Amino acid sequence: MINRPRIIHPNSNHKQSNKAHNSRIKTAYYIIINLSIQIILRTIELDFYMYKVYLRLKLTECMSAAKFCSIFVDLVNLLILILNSIKNKAESKEKLNRNC
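Request: output the structure for the sequence above.
Response:
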């Protein structure tokens, strides 16, 4: 028996590359949609938290030392929350860049 070379259909490579490309596109869309939802939810959360801090500042005109201190704790927590959301957004962008 003579060993004949196996003939590879020229379209099979093209189909495989299309599947890989479509998979990358789906992954990118999934990441973009997921990021958008996270940004919207984080923005709503930050808005509610800022409103809570604003009300606490507005309603307690004559503050005792303890209330004054707790407002600063809330403001620091708000700042940490904002910084974490910025950090998460940057990490998600890096993941998106690595996948594409």
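The chain has a mean pLDDT of 72.
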